[in-house]
Amino acid sequence: MQVVNVTADAETFTCNAYLALGDRPVLVDAGTMDGVVDVLHDYTDMLDAVVLTHQHGDHVGELDAVLDEFDAELAAYGPHPRRDQAIADGDTVQIGDEEFEAIHTPGHADDHLSFVSDSTIFSGDVVVHDDGAFDYGSFGRTDMAGQSREELIESISEILDRMPDSVEHMYAGHGEEFHGDVRDVVETALERAEKREPKYPE
Question: Considering the entire predicted model, what is its pTM?
Answer without folding.
Answer: 0.97
